[in-house]
Amino acid sequence: MTNDEAKIFGVLINCQISTYTALYAPEEAVVTISNILSLTEGMSKYRARKALRSLKEQGVICYKSQGCPAIVSYGEVPELVADAAPPINGYCLTDEGYESAEFKDAYKAWEKSMAEWAERK
Fold first, then answer.
1. What CATH number is attached to the domain comprising 48?
2. Cα 66 to Cα 87: distance, rounded to the nearest angstrom
3. Which domain holds residue 53?
4. What ranges in 41-91 are assigned the alpha helix state H?
């Protein structure tokens, strides 16, 4: 995995793990190319697309369209549930991405941080 691929894969892993503690988070994080660029500081769109294409070929990410954002579709106001916002089109982890050593390491670190947080409470 190249440095660019590792950066982007790390962003997608961190976004997925952050959904585990968010109140109205979807089951999986779908991250747009513009958000990937903002989180990889200084990476050009060309380099990001090249790395994303390579990660897709490796089978660890896929391009996906997520329907209405979770914060609206899980809301308590029924009028806001149906087609309240445009879909989010972006990249997310595949089953192979969840099986990767990078994801497993990040998940273990997250579990450890949550256990430490719980002990402080």
1. 1.10.10
2. 6
3. 3-120
4. 45-58, 70-73
